Amino acid sequence: MATRENDDRIALLQGTLDLLILKTLVLGSCHGQGVARLIQSQSEDVFLVDHGSLYVALQRLEDRKWIRAKWGVSENNRKARFYSLTQHGREQLVEKTGEWRRLTRAMGLILDSGNGPQREEA
After folding, report:
1. For the domain that residue 44 is a member of, what is the CATH number?
2. What is the pTM of this model?
3. How do residues 29-85 score in pLDDT, each as one tens digit?
4. 18 near 27, Cβ under 8 Å?
């Protein structure tokens, strides 16, 4: 997954995509392309999900039993795998959301601390 900033791509921290997928699936069952579109639109086009990364993450989450998949037909009348959150996935979403909230709060404390860059005295 990447973020968009002046068309530069920046790698996000490990676990970010997993958390975003879990959060997206709280809204209901969705196929992979739909998950990618929802993440992009909910982030106001800041997060662009690479499809290679997405399907690796979906498989990892399915292997962990955090999501389940079953075949269905998409809105374009194409065969697609639809993913949904399991109870274990919901529990992980709560846990991981708490971790990310603590992390972002700590980053905010440091970044907003008013301590500018330190300069060595000459």
Report:
1. 1.10.10.10
2. 0.81
3. 999 999 999 999 999 988 889 888 999 999 999 999 999 999 999 988 999 999 999
4. no
pLDDT score at 114? 77
- Residue 65 · residue 73 · CB < 8 Å: no
- Going through 6-103 in order, the beta strands assigned E by DSSP cover 8-11, 30-31, 47-48, 67-73, 79-85
- Split into its structural domains, the chain has a count of 1
- Write out the two tokens for 22: 């879990």
Say what the alpha-carbon torsion angle 95, 84, 1, 4 is, to the nearest 10 degrees: -100
Does any domain span residue 116?
Answer: no
Q: Which residue range forms the structural domain that includes residue 88?
A: 2-111
Least Cα distance to 21 among 84, 81, 73 occurs for 84
